[in-house]
Amino acid sequence: MKGIIRKLAETHSLSLEEYESLITERNDESSRLLRELAVKARREIYGNTVYIRGLIEVSNICRNDCLYCGIRRSNLNCERYRLTPDEILECADEGYGLGFRTFVLQGGEDSYFGDEVLGGIVREIKTKHPDCAVTLSMGERSRESYRYLRECGADRYLLRHETADSEHYAKLHPSEMSYDNRMKCLSDLRELGYQVGCGFMVGSPFQTAKNLAEDLKFVETFKPEMCGIGPFIPHKDTPFRDYPAGTVELTCYLLSVIRLIHPFVLLPSTTALGTVDPLGREKGIMSGANVVMPNLSPVNVRKKYELYDNKICTGEESAQCRECLSNRMLKTGYEIVIDRGDIKRSV
Ligand code: SAM
Ligand code: FES
């Protein structure tokens, strides 16, 4: 194990079999070594700084029906909402005052946010706050749409690949969704000059160690600028309601592995991690993550963007979330900075 971990730290690449054994044969000692090397790699590039992204959850209306997701279209218990362009701009303005220099617009695949509406919002944010980056996380769209939004000023796009195994993908999604299209979207985004984020859930139903090894190999070869991973957490109104949540331990372990694959990658310690463990986000940062994404959505819609049960930060005002995370990071020896938080250099 130690040999594989050192090889990863030095060459940033392993075979599928090596990634798999890194997962199946992990123990306390190997976890410690992996974490130490990941934290060292992160410190050499990003010091003790943590980047923040202001997350604006623009709509929970979705045409998709991903089996794991609490806002899937089949969930009739979900109270739907959509923010107006003015409301979204107000969230960004408030966020700017709180020190955010990146805004992430995330939502279900809601046809209201066609190119003109979404492009208009991106343009307005960029005009008003030219020193900020805009990240979109609005699901699968056509190449033309991605191109248009890029021309409107969008800098980054987050689209988790969810799983790099097409058979596993088919077990997590309805038949009208396809692994091939998701991969095409990711390559379109890359070709159009976005900084791209992929990612996956840890402990999703039917996931095997081999699947995770495939995810890691995909991350290695795709070379994303960002990589979002968090534990799967069941939602009571989905077909996966009775499946167990992913663990903090394995999520943090994989954060360390990803840091060693791409030392420069922007790696969030996710809200899902903070939901399965009150200190989950701190543990993520201490495993090699360097980004947190406090919520900037209006408080009256927070509870409605419930992707999984018991999601945290649904009652606090934006300023409180920002403050809370700052304090949490300081306690672990890290510091949130006012910065666009671009990748230090391409990996
Ligand atoms: N519609 C956009 C998309 O599909 O990329 C953005 C919103 S989608 C809800 C954002 C991410 O939430 C998904 O990529 C998925 O990995 C994560 N997610 C959804 N349901 C989840 C669950 N039950 N547990 C943990 N993460 C979940
Ligand atoms: Fe559309 Fe989850 S099914 S955002």
What is the compact description of this entry?
The protein has 347 residues and is α/β, with parallel strands linked by helices.
Gyration radius, in Å: 19 Å
- Biggest pleated sheet: 6 strands, parallel
**What proportion of the residues form beta strands (DSSP E)?**
5-15%
Bound molecules: S-adenosylmethionine, FE2/S2 (inorganic) cluster
Give the topology.
Blueprint: H1 2-11, H2 16-24, H3 28-46, E1 49-52, E2 54-59, H4 85-97, E3 102-107, H5 115-128, E4 133-137, H6 143-151, E5 156-158, H7 166-172, H8 179-191, E6 195-202, H9 209-222, E7 226-231, H10 248-261, H11 271-276, H12 280-285, E8 291-292, H13 299-302, H14 318-331, E9 335-337
Parallel strand pairs: 1-8, 1-9, 2-3, 3-4, 4-5, 5-6, 6-7
Helix pairs in contact: 2-9, 3-10, 4-5
Kindly describe this structure:
The chain has about 350 residues and is α/β, with parallel strands linked by helices. The protein has a single domain (about 1-335), classed as Alpha-Beta Barrel (TIM Barrel), CATH 3.20.20. Helices cover about 45% and strands about 10% of the residues. A six-stranded parallel β-sheet has the order 2-3-4-5-6-7. Strands 8-1-9 form a three-stranded parallel β-sheet, covered by helices on one side. α4 links the parallel β2 (about 55-60) and β3. It is globular and about 55 Å long. The structure holds S-adenosylmethionine and FE2/S2 (inorganic) cluster (FES).
